[in-house]
Specification:
The complex is a heterotetramer, with one copy of chain A (318 residues), two copies of chain B (339 residues) and one copy of chain C (512 residues). In chain A, 41% of the residues lie in helices and 19% in strands. Chain A is built from ten helices and twelve strands. In chain A, the strands form two sheets. Chain A has a six-stranded parallel sheet, sandwiched between helices. A six-stranded mixed sheet of chain A has the order 7-6-8-9-10-12, sandwiched between helices. The mean pLDDT of chain A is 89. With 339 residues, chain B is mostly helical. Chain B has a single domain, classed as ABC transporter involved in vitamin B12 uptake, BtuC (Orthogonal Bundle), CATH 1.10.3470. Helix content of chain B is 78%, strand content 2%. In chain B, helix 4 crosses helix 15. The longest helix of chain B has 30 residues. Chain B starts with a helix and ends with a helix. The chains are: A alpha/beta (318), B mainly alpha (339), C alpha/beta (512). Chains in contact: A-B, A-D, B-C, B-D, C-D. Chains B and C meet through helix 1, helix 11 and helix 12 of B and helix 3 and strand 8 of C. The complex binds adenosine-5'-triphosphate (2 copies) and magnesium ion (2 copies). The site of one magnesium ion has 5 residues of chain C, from helix 2. Chains B, D: It is a multi-pass membrane protein. Chains B, D: This is ABC transporter.
Chain lengths: 318, 339, 512, 339
């Protein structure tokens, strides 16, 4: 279930947006969820839609690949919603669907995985994958400098390697490290699942008998990574997580494990996307902005959660 | 001749002559219709709109088209006594290879050529390992699955490669006489597969190679070469499928066509192909693919959650096979004494 | 027609000199001489495992000889494969049916040399030519488009033959073609062979049935342990001499004398047993120590009856009782526990684990009994198997050899031997001597008779009427799924049985 | 005893009684050693430290332990003539079910009990569908794969469920005499499997049922019941594996044990199990699993990229099988006449 903070009932301060307006039919599609973050995306979207009395929410969940999602989306399109919010399996693969929908007069809000073609969407709400890597690297650099480690051994547990977002995250990480004169000593790709996280981490530990810093892309698989550290009795490094799960934030706050920080990539973006979709459907803008319409693109910045600010973020943990 | 002798004679005539597979396919078609009816019952307002129904049928066909083409090749391999676990990986490799910038510079023709050549080449390697290296098909193609996905990832640098050829992308978006080109391609491949299997020496020898390889060898058929050709054929189908999938996604990626091997094998088996070889029909396989596509469509229009989908899907697969089973118990009892 | 053969300067079409073929661990051929002339029927005789099938596989290009020469029409040849042999004019009907079940009759006949145009099969031509060939074989009732798996065994044999004749053959090799044929079918086969030899085609004919060799053969070559022990004997050489050449000893009698040990109470009682389309209202009984034989045509439902009694098929009606206790219908396990055993008709597909060693096949039905607390005893299993192998004179005696490498007759011994291990009280035998050589056959008859003497009841199905009459105490005749006659074996003769049995063969049932 | 008797005795030991599989397994062990040597050559500094080498061996064993347990069950199913595509899904379902808050409230005992009962129950359903529903094993267990993953997702609400039982989690972190408990579990399951296959009537029946089901049936073996038991056994192994995996990850999830079915089947086949049933060894299967784990370890200590890993892995699989093939060509020719 989404925490209260993951969704947000629009309050009176947001201009006239709180008041029920004309009815908006929002279609929603995300790939089949097999891990926590994606599951939170769908539940958040649903919950956010439920806070509006003027939104009708139609969700199609769709299969294991882009082709299956495309087929599901075309059935959704045939039902003629006002706006479609979709988290594409892959932005480039579903770009053509965005175009088709926009051409058919259905507004498209892309969630998380950008379409290359600007005509394929009305608005994009994106997490910052590259920025995540940058933030993680910056934290590592800062800590290493503080500890006075000149040539740290840095490990990386990536997510599903065949996804482009994993590549982007890793690139942000290594670009930033390189700028500081550091390199990644070994990198293993897990599959966003706890057991793959444990397995890859245990092998990484084997390859690197001493590690100074470790970045793990995803807090869900991080449960497994932490288990591997624990089983191998390896506590010498600092570990940075990714996404910002409740479990991870609590661990950071407790400060009793190598996990010292996590860089956010919050599934709350799904809630925001639904809110924006409603406004787009009603032709309204964002209350705090001057413009009359919703902006074309919103990129959420990746924030770094440490022991110091963990309390503030706890309510966002999924 | 007595009346009873005549009667048993007729019964026998019905039992042979692939009458069995004809009515097996009729039952599959029945299952398909039943699924469509369930769709109509659960979503009466959608099914009330005939334009929507037509577009929905097209969308099912389009969904089935890529896996359908792969399944035709897979059907040949299985009838010939093998199995090809690498089809998904071949589709991905062919797709990625045909969308590299270098290849795209040769235009649509170059892309199609590349995809098909890559598909056939990988198929030939599979076939070679199996016939001449004497590897079990399961292991050889599993190794190829892993290796081809790896190669695809390395070629693409794990990036999604956009296809900028309008001609290629048009394959997925253009319609002819109101029907998407993808559907024509599936139809063409299926018809070609049917003719190949039922009307040519290649097809008839495929049945022999899978059904009784020793007999085929004694009849002078070059079983090894034939086996190689079967995997090459499967590779060719994968090459075609790669172009279709690339057109649909207007891009290619090392992870695409994930687990198509399971979809294709399942569709072929539901369609009546014997996993042990020697028996199978193209019509059955295509019906199998359509059934799976219709199930997916049914879930989508009803907005079922993924987990509910999966639970129901497992049940439908079992039910679909059981229906065939019970209808044919009497006929099959004759042929199949095994418990 | 025969005059040509008698001419002394007649050159053989085929001459084999000192042919040797070794398989790992087995010297299957160890210096074979063979000489076949045009237009003759040359019979090959030899015990199971003597190397007959291996020899013809060498001729057919399936195996390459290790040494020795093969001269074909005066030229030395070395066939690279089956196709080379067929091209040269040697067509073969193999011992194991080499057909593809899911192809039609016509497709099987022309497999590998289909009439075609641009890769497309010319189906019309193929069907028409198949029909012609079948007609010339006297079997125009077999529809060329029928799937082969839907044909009865006899029909399959005809298709095998049609396939051999679809080539322009100068030499036709038949490896035990009559093993799966009924009496009238064999007559038909001989008819065809005579027509072929009249056209100057040479035939190599393998069979374990002496009377057939006498009827159709011109000359006989005898193999023993992969060696030619006698070549070009006239076909009317006395049986005792042939047998002694084959076995190295003489066998005095074939059927052991009956011993009057049959008990009085019924061991097996079958009452009104029926299965739709197979047999109807069959009642019979077997007493302890009694051998009951069932005669009938192929397709008369005898195998189905046996399997139903055994619980391998579930009857539609009727009961089976052993010692007055009803057996659970359709449950083999309970039949076996009650003391039944069966040697089924098709040993390879129904009885044997071909890759497993002999002793594991022998103990397949009894290893549970030999086990303690679910743990098997390899020592006891092996000892028991060796005992049985000894008493059946199994060749090879080494029980750890995989069954796959045994010849057909020895495989059959393994199957029968399986039921000699436990406390079997009723043995069901379906064609126990199919493909079994004369020597082994006599041994099997002795074994069966000895079992009866020990009080075991035997229910025997055989397509060879003399076997039923010679071995059984009581004879039942079955026709089209019904029992038509029951008699003591001494009261009935072969002609009577054949008269009862003939009511149209299975093949005539189908419309063209 | 005469000299000849002694000689035949020796021959027998070698030729019959799985002499073939013994030397096949020796070759597999050779491949394993070769992989370790490659590791030592490529990473001399790591292999210079004997403490590290020991810990690395343990880490390979630990990596192999979960799949190893699943593979033992799979080996029985395949020898018995079937296939179980649902093992990964069963592990996930059993893991998720045993880590629900309700189950965890019963403590470690309750969790273990639940995992094992769930495993056996799902296995029995598989077995029932296959023996009595007469479904092809491939289809029945594929349907179960889909359905069980769906059920697992629905039970867990797609959340990762943390195991808070120190006893369970301790299975992965505790060592006995310097060796992790997980390794003992694998060893125990493998030994039990070996005894069951080679020394009990159950094992004999398995070989018979897989080698020739009709012959087994006519010899009085209850083939259907035995088939059910085989799938239940595979389910039991999955239940044990679920506990092990949950302990390792200190949590369970519907997506866990992804594609374990492929790993287990591949390991069994590399280990010499015939996919068509009737032959296979536990030792071979375990060696197969260890080879795969060692390959993974080799890649990790050399820091290979995922795509390079995959390409090399495909090659190693092919090479490992080819090595066996060529060594045994002469022996196998005896048994395998098919081309
Ligand atoms: N492929 C093979 N591999 C190993 N041994 C073989 C093979 N084929 C035949 N043998 C062995 O060669 C010998 C001759 O067998 P063959 O089949 O030629 O006998 P046969 O005379 O035809 O017997 P039958 O009358 O029973 O058919 C036997 O000992 C048999 O076990
Ligand atoms: N209606 C039928 N259609 C197809 N095949 C049939 C039919 N009836 C019988 N057969 C097959 O014909 C063969 C012989 O039939 P059956 O077993 O009834 O004869 P039988 O009396 O036991 O003769 P035998 O044991 O001498 O072959 C069997 O393989 C059986 O499967
Ligand atoms: Mg023979
Ligand atoms: Mg019979």
């Amino acid at each position: 279930a989404p925490t209260a903070a993951q969704t947000k009932a629009v309050d009176a301060a947001a201009g006239g947006n709180a008041a029920p307006g004309e009815k908006v039919v929002i279609g929603f599609s995300a790939p089949a969820a097999d891990h926590g973050w994606l599951a939170a995306i769908t539940t958040n979207a649903k919950a956010q839609a439920a806070t509006f009395s003027d939104v009708e929410f139609k969700s199609v969940e769709s299969g294991s690949d882009a082709a299956a999602q495309r087929a599901a989306l075309s059935t959704l399109l045939a039902q003629k919603p006002n706006v479609i919010v979709l988290l594409p399996h892959d932005g480039k693969e579903l770009n053509s669907f965005g175009l088709e929908a926009m051409t058919a007069g259905v507004q498209v809000v892309n969630l998380d995985r950008a379409f290359p073609d600007r005509r394929a969407y009305r608005t994009q709400v994106l997490g910052d994958n590259y920025g995540m890597g940058v933030a993680a690297a910056n934290y590592v650099i800062e800590q290493m400098k503080a500890k006075g480690v000149a040539a740290p051994v840095i490990g990386e547990i990536a997510g599903m390697d065949e996804l482009e977002l994993t590549q982007t995250r890793s690139k942000g990480f290594s670009d930033t490290l390189t700028a500081a004169g550091f390199t990644v000593a070994n990198r293993r790709a897990a599959r966003f699942t706890v057991d793959s996280g444990q397995q890859e981490a245990s092998q990484l530990l084997q390859a690197l008998p001493k590690i100074d810093a470790l970045w793990n892309h995803d807090d869900d698989q991080g449960i497994g990574v932490l288990a591997a550290l624990n089983q191998a009795n390896r506590k010498e490094m600092i570990m940075v997580g990714g996404a910002g799960s409740k479990q991870a934030i609590e661990a950071i706050q407790a400060d009793d494990s190598p996990l010292k920080a996590t860089v956010t990539y919050s599934p709350s973006m799904a809630s925001s996307a639904i809110s924006l979709a409603r406004l787009i459907g009603q032709g309204k803008g964002l209350g705090d902005l001057v413009e009359l319409q919703v902006p074309k693109e919103i990129v959420l910045s990746s924030e770094t959660i440490t022991k110091d600010n963990a309390a503030d973020y706890l309510k966002f943990g999924f | 001749m007595t009346a009873t002798a005549l009667e048993t004679g007729r019964k026998r005539l019905w039992a042979g002559e692939s009458g069995e597979s004809v009515s097996r396919n009729l039952i599959l078609a029945g299952v398909l219709v039943a699924l469509l009816v369930i769709g109509a019952i659960t979503q009466p307002q959608l099914y009330g709109d005939s334009a929507w129904v037509w577009s929905n049928v097209l969308s099912i066909l389009q969904l089935a088209s890529v896996v359908g083409v792969v399944t035709v090749g897979m059907t040949f391999v299985i009838i010939g006594g093998g199995i090809d676990l690498s089809v998904g990986a071949i589709v991905a490799l062919a797709g990625v290879w045909s969308t590299t910038l270098a290849t795209q510079s040769f235009g649509a023709g170059g892309m199609i050529f590349t995809a098909i050549v890559v598909g056939i080449a990988v198929g030939l390697v599979n076939g070679f390992l199996i016939s001449y290296g004497k590897l079990v098909p399961f292991i050889a193609t599993l190794a190829m699955l892993v290796a081809a996905r790896g190669l695809a990832a390395s070629i693409s640098g794990k990036q999604t490669q956009i296809s900028s050829s309008d001609l290629i992308n048009g394959i997925a978006s253009t319609k002819l006489l109101g029907i998407p080109i993808l559907v024509y391609i599936l139809a063409a491949v299926a018809v070609a597969g049917w003719v190949l299997l039922n009307r040519t020496t290649f097809g008839r020898r495929t049945v022999a190679v899978g059904g009784n390889p020793e007999a085929a060898r004694l009849a002078g058929i070059n079983v090894k070469r034939h086996t190689m050709l079967l995997y090459a054929l499967s590779g060719l189908c994968c090459g075609i499928a790669a172009i279709m999938l690339t057109a649909q996604a207007t891009s290619a990626q090392a992870a695409m066509a994930n687990l198509y091997e399971l979809d294709a094998i399942a569709a072929a088996i539901i369609g009546g192909t014997l996993l042990s070889g020697g028996r199978g029909t193209i019509v059955g396989s295509v019906l199998g693919v359509l059934i799976f596509a219709t199930i997916t469509n049914l879930f989508a229009i009803n907005g079922l959650s993924t987990e509910a989908q999966n639970m129901v899907k497992g049940g439908i697969i079992v039910a679909a096979v059981l229906v065939q089973q019970f209808r044919f118990q009497s006929v099959t009892r004759l042929f199949n004494r095994k418990p | 027609m025969r005059t040509a053969i008698d001419e002394p300067d007649e050159r053989p079409v085929l001459r084999l000199t000192d042919v040797v073929k070794t398989f790992p661990g087995v010297k299957a051929l160890d210096g074979v001489q063979l000489e076949v002339r045009a237009g003759e029927v040359h019979c090959l005789l030899g015990q199971n495992g003597a190397g007959k099938s291996t020899l013809i596989k060498v001729l057919a290009g399936v195996h390459r000889p290790d040494s020795g020469t093969v001269e074909w029409q005066g030229e030395p040849v070395a066939f690279g494969g089956p196709q080379a042999a067929t091209k040269a004019g040697i067509a073969t009907i193999y011992q194991e049916l080499d057909l593809v079940g899911d192809l039609s009759v016509a497709e099987n006949v022309f497999l590998g040399h289909e009439p075609r145009r641009f890769g497309f099969v010319r189906r019309g031509t193929m069907v028409a030519r198949t029909r012609e060939i079948l007609k010339s074989l006297g079997h125009e009732e077999i529809p060329p488009r029928r799937m082969v798996h839907a044909l009865p065994a006899a029909g399959k044999q005809v298709v095998s033959m049609a396939r051999a004749l679809s080539h322009e053959a100068r030499l036709l090799i038949m490896d035990e073609p009559s093993a799966v044929l009924a009496h009238d079918e064999v007559e038909n086969l001989f008819h065809i062979i005579r027509r072929l030899t009249a056209r100057g085609i040479a035939v190599i004919y393998i069979s374990h049935r002496m009377e057939e060799i006498r009827e159709i053969g011109d000359r006989v070559t005898v193999l023993k342990d992969g060696r030619t022990t006698a070549a070009n004997l006239p076909a009317d050489t006395p049986t005792t001499e042939l047998v002694s050449r084959m076995t190295g000893r003489s066998i005095e009698y074939v059927f052991p004398p009956r011993t009057a040990t049959a008990g009085t109470d019924d061991l097996l009682t079958v009452t009104n047993l029926s299965r739709a389309g197979e047999f109807r209202d069959v009642s019979l009984s077997v007493r302890p120590g009694e051998i009951v034989g069932i005669a009938g045509l192929v397709g008369s439902g005898r195998s189905e009856l046996l399997e139903t009694i055994y619980g391998a098929r579930r009857p539609d009606a009727g009961t089976v009782e052993l010692d007055g206790r009803r057996l659970r219908p359709g449950d083999v396990g309970s039949a076996v526990r009650a003391g039944m055993g069966m040697a089924p008709e098709e040993r390879k597909s129904q009885a044997l684990l071909l890759g497993e060693p002999i002793h594991r096949n022998m103990t397949l039905a009894t290893f549970t009994g030999l086990a303690r607390f679910g743990f098997t005893s390899a020592r006891r299993e092996r000892a028991e198997s060796e005992r049985i192998a000894e008493s059946l004179e199994l060749r090879p005696r080494d029980v750890s050899r995989p069954v796959r490498t045994l010849s057909g007759g020895n495989q059959q011994k393994v199957v029968v031997g399986r039921w000699l291990l436990g406390g079997t009280r009723l043995l069901l035998l379906d064609e126990p001597t199919r493909g079994v050589d004369v020597g082994a056959r006599a041994e099997l008859y002795r074994v069966i008779r000895d079992l009866a003497a020990e009080g075991v009841g035997v229910l025997l199905v055989s397509s060879e009427v003399p076997e039923v009459l010679g071995l059984a105490d009581r004879v039942l005749v079955m026709r089209e799924g019904r029992m038509v006659r029951e008699a003591s074996a001494t009261e009935i003769d072969e002609d009577t049985v054949l008269d009862l049995v003939m009511a149209g063969s299975l093949m005539e049932g189908a419309p063209a």
